[in-house]
From TrEMBL:
Residues 212-232, 628-639 have a biased composition (Basic and acidic residues). Residues 116-140 have a biased composition (Polar residues). Belongs to the bZIP family. CNC subfamily. CDD domains: bZIP_NFE2-like. It holds the Pfam family bZIP_Maf. Residues 500-534 have a biased composition (Low complexity). InterPro entries: bZIP, bZIP_Maf, NFE2-like, TF_DNA-bd_sf. Its main location: endoplasmic reticulum. SUPFAM superfamilies: A DNA-binding domain in eukaryotic transcription factors (SSF47454). This is Endoplasmic reticulum membrane sensor NFE2L1. One of its GO terms (cellular component) is endoplasmic reticulum membrane. Residues 785-794 have a biased composition (Basic residues). Residues 116-182, 210-232, 344-371, 488-556, 596-639, 773-794 are annotated as: Disordered.
Length: 794
DNA sequence: GTTCGTTGTCATAGT
DNA sequence: GCACTATGACAACGA
């Protein structure tokens, strides 16, 4: 299989290069990425979408957040995941530019553009013309080139299954652009390639893009009918033998449609490369071609994928997957923190992508995908995006320029991301595999300015804590630098900062509980479904049987356990609780909330069927059910059931007093039953009260923590302002001193000589005038106040 | 078996 | 005085 893959890969590439060189227009890259995912997979390896481990990893990292499947946070969650995929796509830098240029080497018989003029757009693209230029260009060649760039650079259309929707619009557009010019030979050639794909064992089930293909077919007019028929044949897998002669050994179809190409296909790839390099001098240090990247990636291709590419600039799959894996790990770590920032980052992100994409106004993914080949070499738009996202946890330490917005704005057009990809891709395994990438993104603790620039994008609570700590550290450092603050004072201040609060912020989050959400949600649920919430109670229907009360009576048990769970999950404010692992175990849902079989609770007055009416089998079946009911019921429920109380506990607890008394008067109950009913009501109300009390207690604690946190931030801010003032005062003193020296040196006595500084000095009078006085007089003047002060002290 | 968090319950004070 | 709420304390329960 490996041999077949190698054979097919090289053959396909040679075939395409030769077709391009002889003038047959085959935008194979579009097929490679859009029409034929299997081809791309055969060449580049299985995509992450079809890789089980990737899938599980994705599920683990993303779903590990614990979002309930019914939670309304899913919208935000999927938005996050889509944005994450956008960011992840930015790391796929390993597609080399020579490959792009290779697909562009063809003569367009329709546009009648010279080879130079054809290559120039690609060069311009590769060189990184502004995105606006590219976007505004509407020439077919340019659009086709853009499609080639998109599809070639992005070997992972699998992201569409990972949540990031592939830029189908732009791709289809590019496909149409590329396919409209296809001749019958080209179509047959593609058909051959498809059959080869099938023959090579790529199962049709892994393709599964027929729907997209059908869509594209539906959009395409009749000229594509023939190719559609070929595709249909390919899908149905029939008439393969009839359509093409098959190699007896390998089962591959023999492309007889292109006579004379059989000998050319034996042309070595090195020769093709040489030919391409003669056309486009990659190796030269030209501003138009990113030579270091090309060489690096070629080296990578030679080192790590010799069997498949042999110097052809195919991206090495394994490092890429590693890099992607690392990205996913990082993103998993960032996941919680990112949920909050999404609202802001998404806007900026989408705005940037919408500005930077030409054909993907609706799909932001295509922006990050499609224009990446442009971004990598020129603009920083997507780099900003990646920086914005990637710098969420912190700034990079090992790559200070990589995720540094300041450096980002002032760095050279060669993006650091690309530099990382090119220069480190050769040893990407050793670099990213052995080390924890998360450490790369953790900031150095005292990396003052850069960290400050990064902190605004950090989400709470991490950002605030980090900001605060950095403020403290900065303040202490500045303190130590300032005059009047020695190291001891700085340490003293540090102690103050550390000990000013009896509460530890880190530990103070632990008692946080969504009980408020619990109560509020249950309140909402009850108020929407019950008449009793108007009573003033929170409507927290207490017991499990609340899930099944008489519907005609208002369904006191609007507090359904499932809804309760949903409420809990959805109400959790990520900005407040996310990123706090201490809260993971807060959402306990104990058994009193579990659902109960509604048959009895809806009609508790119905007597439990006795053994006389039921067979032994039914009894044996019912017994575990009753045991289960008993286990799930509260004690009061069991008591009420035992005492045959003819109404539900919810009514007992939540009915207003008047209605409750009326209910009691309707039913003639014994004293024991009345006592039990009143106890149930008392306990139920007390239970709600206890829950409310605990909720308030937690809210109070949280508010206090927040207050402490705010106070500490204010203190740090004030301290920082103080040191800034001290610094400015010192600077003013220095200025005054320098001015003093300047003025003093320019003063001359009657003889035209300068005053000796040891004997004279300048004195400032109260009216603003400056006098030069002998130091003896000034000393006497200064001694007099001292004496006066001493006298006052005495 | 112990620890810890959650929940229910009781007693009591306050409204 | 009654109904209700608030809260501390305790026990049961489950992870």
């Amino acid at each position: 299989m490996l041999y077949l893959k190698k054979y097919f890969t090289e053959g396909l590439i040679q075939f395409t290069i030769l077709l391009s060189l002889i003038g047959v227009r085959v935008d194979l890259d579009t097929y490679l990425s859009n029409q034929l995912p299997p081809l791309r997979e055969i060449i580049l390896g299985p995509s992450s979408a079809y890789t089980q481990t990737q899938f599980h990893n994705l599920r683990n990292t993303l779903d590990g957040y614990g979002i309930h499947p019914k939670s309304v946070d899913l919208d935000q969650f999927f938005t996050t995941r889509r944005l994450l995929n956008q960011v992840r796509q930015l790391d796929r830098l390993s597609v080399p530019s020579p490959e792009l240029s290779t697909w562009l080497v063809h003569c367009d018989p329709e546009t009648v553009v010279s080879a130079a003029s054809q290559s120039s757009p690609s060069i311009t693209l590769d060189n990184g013309a502004s995105l606006e230029d590219v976007n505004n260009s509407e020439t077919p060649t340019m659009r086709g080139g853009g499609g080639a760039l998109e599809s070639t650079y992005n070997p992972s259309g699998e992201d569409s299954t990972l949540g990031a929707v592939a830029p189908e619009d732009s791709q289809e557009q590019s496909n149409r652009d590329g396919n409209d010019d296809l001749t019958k030979e080209d179509i047959d050639l593609i058909d051959i390639l498809w059959r080869q794909d099938i023959d090579l064992g790529a199962g049709r089930e892994v393709f599964n893009y027929s729907s997209r293909q059908k869509e594209s077919e539906a959009e395409k007019p009749s000229p594509e009918e023939e190719r559609a028929e070929a595709q249909e044949r390919w899908r149905n897998g029939v008439n393969l033998q009839e359509a093409q002669p098959v190699d007896g050994e390998t089962g591959e179809s023999i492309p007889e449609q292109i006579p004379g190409l059989g000998s050319q296909t034996s042309l070595s790839l090195q020769e093709c490369l040489r030919l391409l390099e003669a056309t486009f001098p990659f190796g030269e240090e030209s501003p138009e071609f990113p030579a270091p990247v090309v060489t690096a990636e070629l080296a990578v291709a030679n080192e790590e994928a010799p069997s498949t590419s042999r110097g052809l600039p195919l991206p090495p799959p394994l490092p890429q997957l590693d890099l992607e894996q690392q990205w996913q790990d990082i993103m998993a770590i960032m996941e919680l923190q990112e949920m909050e920032v999404n609202n802001t980052s998404e806007n900026s992100f989408l705005s940037t992508t919408s500005n930077s994409t030409n054909t993907s106004g609706s799909t932001s993914e295509s922006g990050s995908v499609g224009s990446f080949g442009l971004t990598r070499s020129s603009t920083l738009i997507h780099q900003d995006v990646s920086l914005h996202q990637a710098s969420l946890p912190s700034c990079s330490q090992d790559f200070p320029t990589l995720f540094n917005p300041e450096m980002d704005a002032t760095s050279t057009p060669r993006t650091p991301l690309l530099t990382m990809s090119s220069s480190n891709s050769s040893n990407v395994n050793s670099t990213f595999g052995a080390t924890n990438l998360t450490g790369l993104f953790l900031p150095p603790p005292l990396n003052s300015t850069n960290n400050i620039t990064c902190t605004p994008v950090l989400p709470d609570p991490f950002s605030t804590l980090l900001e605060e700590s950095m403020l403290d550290e900065i303040s202490l450092l500045d303190l130590a630098m300032e005059e009047g603050f020695n190291q001891a004072q700085a340490s003293q201040l540090e102690d103050e900062l550390d000990s000013d609060s009896g509460l530890s912020l880190d530990s103070s989050h632990s008692p946080a509980s969504p009980s408020s959400s619990e109560t509020s949600c249950s309140s909402a649920a009850s108020s929407s479904s019950t008449n009793f919430s108007e009573e003033g109670a929170v409507g927290y229907s207490t017991d499990s049987e609340s899930a099944a009360v008489e519907p005609e009576e208002g369904a006191v048990g609007g507090y359904q356990p499932e809804f309760n769970k949903l409420c809990r999950m959805s109400y959790q404010d990520p900005s407040q609780f996310h990123g706090l692992p201490q809260l993971d175990n807060v959402n306990h849902n104990h058994t009193y909330n579990l659902p109960l079989s509604s048959s009895f609770d809806e009609h508790p007055e119905l007597p439990i069927p006795t053994g006389k009416k039921m067979g032994r089998e039914k009894q044996s079946k019912l017994k575990p059910q009753q045991d289960f009911l008993d286990k799930q019921s509260s004690r009061d429920e069991r008591r009420a059931r035992a005492m045959k109380i003819p109404f539900s506990n919810e009514k007992i607890i939540n009915l207003p007093v008047e209605e409750f008394n009326e209910l009691l008067s309707k039913h003639h109950l014994s004293e024991a039953q009345l006592a039990l009913v009143r106890d149930i009501r008392r306990r139920g109300k007390n239970k709600m009260a206890a829950q409310n009390c605990r909720k308030r207690k937690l809210d109070t604690i949280i508010n206090l923590e927040q207050g402490v946190h705010d106070l500490r931030r204010d203190k740090a801010r004030l301290l920082k302002e103080k040191m800034e003032f001290i610094r400015s005062i010192r600077q003013m003193k220095q200025k005054v001193q320098s001015l003093y020296q300047e003025v003093f040196t320019q003063l001359r006595n009657e003889e035209g000589r300068p005053y000796p500084p040891s004997e004279y000095s300048l004195q400032y009078s109260a009216d603003g005038s400056v006098l030069i006085m002998p130091r003896t007089m000034t000393d006497q003047q200064t001694r007099k106040p001292e004496k006066k002060q001493k006298d006052k002290k005495k």
